[in-house]
Amino acid sequence: MRYLRRAWLVNACAFLLLAATQSSAQFKPKVNVEVPPNLPIGPAIIQINDRTAVLLITSNGALAPADRARLAASRLQALIAAGADRKKIKAKAISQGRADIMWGQTLVLIVTKSEADAHASSVFSLATTWAGNIRWLLAAPPLTLSPASLVVPLGETRQALVGGGAQGIVYVSDSLPDIATTTVSQNNCALTVKGLAPGTTTVSVTRGGVTVPLNVSVRKYAGRVATPRTVMVTGSPAPSMLCSRLAELEASRSLVLEPGARATTLPPTTKVPDLPGASQFTLTFPVRIEGPGYISVGSSANVRVMNAPLPSKPTGKLFYSNSPEKVEKYGVLFAGKLHLDDPTRLLYHHQNMLGSPFIFNIVLVNSGPAPARVQIIKAMPDPIVDTVAVGYRAGVEFFRAYLNNVGEIADLPPMSKTAVLSQIVDKIHTTSGIAQFRQLEGYPLLIKLSADLVENGVFPEGEALEANSADAQLALSPWVYPYPTKPVDAEYIVGKSWAFIRIGKYAIKDAAQEQLLYGNYGVIYDINLTMRNPASERKQVDVLFKPGAGMASGVFTIDGKYVKVTHIEPPREVSLARYLLEPGQSKTVSIKTTPLAGSFYPATILVRS
């Protein structure tokens, strides 16, 4: 059985008999006999194109295995030369002890019982197997390539396996050698093609007088995923929605696309949790990049999210961008300068009265020679027509983020600019928002708000672009107000006059004491309310919000509990909280609020029983 195993051993190259890319009518399969040396009587192998078709182990009468093999091979060669139809090769049972392999009416080989026994088979079964081998090997195309064409990434290599009936050395010729180069393996079983430049070429592959083409297309990948990225957030904790949004944005920034390619980023493979302070986790985003003429890429982008331990700090000044409130021409709406570790709040509120859409941009500019880093707490909703509602949305979102120090940390390279916001504002729509910037490192940043042409396109949010001299030469706006926090102490005594806490009535002034901020929009009121009940019975005390100048909305925290008020007009009032004070009891309540853009302030917090 040792010779049996050897005789049937066929390497991978030998059995690559796939669909031929081209055949040759002149090609004639080669039949030969292999006899192991140094054995007076031993097995003999009939080969077709150097592939084993028949293994003869026993003699038949006076004919040794080698004689039987040579006789069968000569018959096959004659029939091949005559162009006989290979489909007529079949096994024919003669008796229990004999079966013949016939090619039409011509005997090729007799299969004896002793031969079948040596192969642990029946006579007819062995004859059928050998007839099938002969048919199959004769049907092999002269030269095959698998695959018949190659797509090769630029700078990489791909292989095609060589098969078929033709034997000998494989020769290759590249039609455009500047596009790809081809080498042949030492065993002549494989071609290795390396892509040198984008384009298409044809490699002519020749073996045994037969030539077939290998079509090669060298292409670039549609894109790639850069090294893992990191985003930094703040907050106690940083909400999952913020972490997910920033991580997805950073994942998209990590993609390097070829011109005309597009990328699809799927949701992360793991659930995004709220992130406690001084902790981190990694999100993995599946990515598909594709485009015409490119090799599609399936990959993943990994983004690490870190919650930086950054304690909050009181706001040093307020930028107020509301002049003009009604935008009637393109240009800069506000420009200001940040300073190191001086938290600065920005409130903007602008209505598009141009008669056509414009792009509203908020851009940070680092004109210094070193990188800059800044914490951004922002609430920037989409523009809508309702001027009160858009200011309310911004205020509610910002108030919660601000009180919990929830934000992102952005890095700006030297001489760069980045868009904090870039949105299209339709006609008669209002864009309104609140943000706070705390520069942590670097040269003082400039901030610019502008109404720009739609034709200029939307800035890619968060992406660092090169700054020019015009970006650094901005005329600073005058609407800058220091210390935009108003501490208020108020007291209400049951049975005495009601307490009236005015919100937005007493306007703060700019540093030069020239500009008044009417309504105190964007100013945080930190109210310390003390209530006393000197009566001998339990008393109910109500805390209410009452607009005075027109329709108003409001957002409050009362002892840490959020309370929201939407769209009420004088003389209506709405309850914010209710307390029951026992006889002689005193209670101190912490209230925080801010006048909201689009609403009519001043308004009043009313305390009564």
Shape designation: elongated
**Number of continuous helical runs:** 7
Number of domains: 5
On the 0 to 100 scale, the average pLDDT is 92
Beta-strand level of the residues, as a percent range?
Answer: over 45%
Number of strands: 43
Tell me the distance between the termini: 108 Å
Helix content: 10-25%
Which spans have pLDDT < 50 for at least 5 consecutive residues? 1-23
Describe this structure as you would to a colleague.
It is a single chain. This protein is mainly beta and 609 residues long. The protein has five domains: 30-139, no CATH class; 144-219, Immunoglobulin-like (Sandwich); 237-305, no CATH class; 317-481, no CATH class; 485-608, Immunoglobulin-like (Sandwich), CATH 2.60.40. Helix content is 13%, strand content 45%. The chain contains seven helices and 43 strands. Strands 16, 18, 19, 20, 21, 22, 24, 26, 27, 29 and 32 form an eleven-stranded mixed sheet that branches. Residues 1-23 have low confidence and may be disordered.
Quick overview:
The chain is mainly beta and 609 residues long.
What labels would you give this structure?
about 600 residues; mainly beta; Immunoglobulin-like; 5 domains; 43 strands; about 45% strand; elongated; disordered N terminus
Secondary structure elements and their pairing?
Blueprint: H1 2-8, E1 31-34, E2 44-48, E3 51-56, H2 65-81, E4 89-95, E5 98-103, E6 106-112, H3 113-118, H4 123-139, E7 144-146, E8 149-153, E9 157-163, E10 171-174, E11 180-184, E12 190-195, E13 199-207, E14 210-219, E15 223-225, E16 229-234, H5 240-253, E17 255-257, E18 262-265, E19 280-290, E20 297-307, E21 317-321, E22 326-327, E23 331-337, E24 344-352, E25 358-366, E26 372-379, H6 387-403, E27 407-412, E28 416-425, E29 430-441, E30 446-452, E31 465-466, H7 469-472, E32 480-482, E33 485-493, E34 499-503, E35 508-509, E36 516-517, E37 524-532, E38 539-547, E39 552-558, E40 561-568, E41 574-581, E42 586-593, E43 603-608
